[in-house]
Amino acid sequence: MKIIASNFKTNHTRKSTQEFCDALESFLSHKSIPHKVAVFPPSTALLENAFKHFSIGAQNAYFVQNGSFTGEIGLEQLEEFSIQTLLIGHSERRFLGECQEFCAQKFAYFAKQNFEIFYCIGESLNTKNQGLDSTLAFLESQLQGIDLSYPKLIVAYEPIWAIGSGVSATLDEITQVHTRLKQKLGKIPLLYGGSVKPQNTSEILSLNGVDGVLVGSASWEIESFCQILENSF
Ligand code: PEP
Fold it and tell me: Based on the structure, what is the number of domains in the chain?
């Protein structure tokens, strides 16, 4: 079983998310795709997590039940939709100011709530250019404070330089990093993300140490996401 997830980022409305999810449910009910599938819509478009063939997850939430945190949503808002899956540590959130300690606090809170957590790590081009050891040291720093024995943890390796660029890391680059990360992560599922698209899904998923993919732009059109799923086995 692989894990295939779609991160909508700041795309789609509630209406188009509903259409996308209805179409995805119909597609998955006609195919026997042996994978775990998750969709992360923006928070204004969260839908009841009641689809049979995939989960709805949240791209972000604050580590609180409720309270005075303008612009944030907390556990109460997720519970209203029975959401139990959360993305933490995405490079775009880190870029917006979330430091490692904040990511770790978020992780600790939602792990305590028994959430499934997709936890993202990834290096900049500058770090990549310093070599594999520097890259690994940086990636390990992004795991600081994260309980790697948490059973509902999924890690996504998403090199920042490959995200949204249209050009994924090469198969060799993915293999090198995943092999080293697996030594630290053991049995924790490890996804790759960064310009995954229908054309490269199959070869990326066939690599040793790749347990799935986290997809941004190529997952926003239902036809393209279904094609990725078609190519995933
Ligand atoms: C992402 O941001 O999680 C991502 C993988 O984006 P893209 O597929 O567009 O590179």
Answer: 1
Residue 6 structural domain: 2-231
Is 8 labelled as part of a ligand binding site? yes
User: Residues with catalytic annotation?
Assistant: 90, 158
Question: In a 3-state reduction of DSSP, which class is residue 231?
Answer: coil
Neighbours of 99 (CB within 10 A): 9
Q: Which atom of ligand 1 is nearest to the CA of 196?
A: 8
Strands 55-56 and 3-7, sheet pairing: unpaired
Dihedral sign from CA coordinates of 135, 168, 229, 58: positive
Instruction: Read off the CATH number of the domain in which 163 is found.
Output: 3.20.20.70
Is 68 assigned to a binding site?
Answer: no
pLDDT tens-digit readout, 211-233: 999 999 999 999 999 999 999 98
Predicted structure pTM score:
0.98
pLDDT at 130 over 90: yes
